[in-house]
Design a protein that fits this description.
Layout lengths: L1 H13 L2 H14 L6 H11 L6
Helix pairs in contact: 1-2, 2-3
């Protein structure tokens, strides 16, 4: 969670689509943990990131 939050912060500051694409790979690994509100929020934040470089 901590590293994903850091990556999201970087993506927000840089508008990097590359980071958004990389974090998409994490979303599949988060699926089993979606019952945790923190994970669900993280997933939604990743989904909202731009995907263009």
């Amino acid at each position: 969670m901590h590293y994903a939050e850091e990556a999201l912060g970087l993506a927000d500051r840089s508008d990097s689509g590359f980071i958004g694409k990389k974090l998409d790979g994490l979303r599949g690994r988060l699926a089993p943990l979606m019952s945790d509100d923190r994970v669900s929020i993280l997933d939604h934040r990743i989904a909202a990131l731009p995907r263009t470089a």
